[in-house]
Structure formats: structure tokens, C-alpha cells
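Archive entry. Fields below.
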Amino acid sequence: MSESWPIEQIPDADRLFMRVHRNYIQNSQPIPGVFQNHGEGEQEGMSTDWSRHSTAAQTKLRAVNPAWRGGVIQMVVRDVRKIPRQTVQHAPLPDNRAHTNVKGPKKESVEGTQVRYLFMSIWKWAIEDTGDAPATTST
Amino acid sequence: MRRNPINIELLEVEEAGVKTGCSDWLPSREREMQPGGFAAPQSHEDWSNAPAITTQDVYRLAVELAQMREQISQQLTEIQQKLSQRKEPRWRWHRTKPARKDTGQRVLPFLPTDLSPISDAIENSKVIFNRPPDPSDDLALRCSQETWRRAIKILTDHALSVWEKAKTVIRSPVISAGPDGSVDLYWTAEPYGLLLNVPADPTQPATYFGDDATNPDSNRTSGKLNSSKLIDPGVLMWLAHTAEQ
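PREDICTED_STRUCTURE:
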């Protein structure tokens, strides 16, 4: 999967971008449930894009479904690494050099609840959901 | 004759017709209960100075209790009639409405009007088990109505407890679907926050974590809810922190 792009070390000061679907935005903030892992095996993790190789707008445009609506949040890598048992691993895809997995448990038990709570305290909007407008690169 | 009425040494027992001690204790005929209560012996000056409970008092209290019971019963009947007519009673209690009249759907608890923000949050949260399929939604967070109900019960139990104990209204949480069909209740009130997760499996306990952002390392709360207890003291304390000031 990652032959075409080298795996790099991600500095603490960089940021990670993540799409949040409109269905999961309440009171102008993402719900805690958006912080969860996807995929299996080596690719299991919370999918994000590394700011060195992507902008927030590009992350938004990577939504597979053209009807997708929502916003993009950003998290500082240093803050993510402070959350218990969470690791940040660059996992480039052939069509997305920025792809990065945040690995580590995010559900079940008190620890999973703690992890999602702490994610809720470190995110910021990179692109807010703007009503009915489709995904664009204008912001 | 002055005598200490609570001096145990003076309370001797009458045996075999031999009268000992308490010489001023009245004969049994005079001890019979009269409509006006037990006659207080004039020789017990200390007793006569203290207010005595008489049978008249007992009768009066019984009548008052019966009247109060009748009034409460009438008021409850009025409330039930008004609710059945979909009119709010005089002191405006707010009833959360179920999304649908599903067969077997349990009625949610009544919440005082002061807790209407909580009622509104509950009402609005029904979308998390009623959401229509959305092909553009790649996360597809869903939960069952049963899991939602358990989460709402935890919420209302704690909101009512804080209200009854401190007349304080807790902040409305974000009620949302969590991982694996669970339900999240999330509160923020800077600097305090709390996330409570109710799993889809009813045999598993709800878990929670909260902290004080100004002192997160030493001022935090976490744990599992004991299903045998309605109220968790740790959650209760943290919710009181998040209450509207």
C-alpha cells in the first residue's frame, strides 16, 4: 500500500486533519463518537491527514461520496501523543501521501472513554461546516 | 412529693400484690385511657409542666393527616385529568414526549419545567436511533432505542437528584451515538467536562471520565456505574460542577 511514498516521522508541532460528517456535529462541535478506529490489521486506526502533505481543504475533498457534507478538524500531534496509548503513525496511501493513522484503543472500558474525552479537549476547527454548501476548496 | 420520673432506681415492680416504689402511680382503674388522654398526676410537678401528648392530640393529628391525604389525592386527580387533556397543570411540569407511540415503550420520567433544557436535549436526541440511512455518512454511528433509553434514564436520574438536593439545574449534555451502538453523554462547562458512555450490551456497566482543565492531572474523576445504584456520587459531584451558575 505504501511503496510509492516513504514513511516519515511526524514532528510534534505538526497537525493532523480529520473530516467530520455533518450528522456528527452538535452545538457546533464534533460528537465524541467521531474519534474511533477504522480498518483492520496494519491499517487499523483513526484516519487523519498530516499537515505536511495536505491542507484541510484537500482533506475535505477526499470524501469519497460527492454528497458528503461536514467540516474538518485539526489536532496538534504533540497533544495527540499525550493521550494514553495513542500513537501517530504515518501510513501513506498510493493516492494520499498525507494519510496518517492514530492507533490505540478508543472504546470500551474507562480507558476508552477517557481517550475520547481527551480527544474532545484538543480538536479545533480547520474548516467549519458551512450549512448546505458542498465540499469545496474555498476555505 | 418530688420525684425524678426518669430515675430507674425508683421504678420498682409491683409483685404479688406488694406495692413498692412509685407510690403516687395511680391504681389501674384510674390509669385507663380517657377521651382527654391520661390524667397527669398532680404530684408529678415536672411532668405537668411539660407538654403532654393527649388522645385529643392524636385524634387531631389523624384528622389533619386524613385531610392532607384527601387534598393530595384531589390534586393528583386534577393533574392526571389535565395531562390526559394535554393541558399543563398549574405548577407546570414538563413531560418528555416519546418519539413514537411504540408498543411497550416505557414512559420517560416527569421533569420539572426548570429542567426543560434537559427535556429538550432528550427530545432532540431521538434522531440518533431514528436517523434515516445516509449514503454519504461513512461513519454510520447508530444505537438502539433500548440503549438510548438506558442512557436517558441515567441522565434524568442524576439531573433530578441534583435538582432535588440542591435546586440546581445541570447543564444539558450532548447526547450522541458512540462506538459499537453505545450512547455518549458529554458535558462541558469550562473548565469542567465529563463523558459518560452507555454500552449497547446492557450487562456491561456505563463508564465515565471527567476532569478539570485547569488541573487535569490531580482533579479528575473516572469509573464505572454500579447498575444496582441509581445515582453515582462521582458523576453527581461532577455534574454539579457543570451546573448553570
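CURATOR_NOTE: Residues 58 and 111 of chain A are 33 Å apart (CA to CA).
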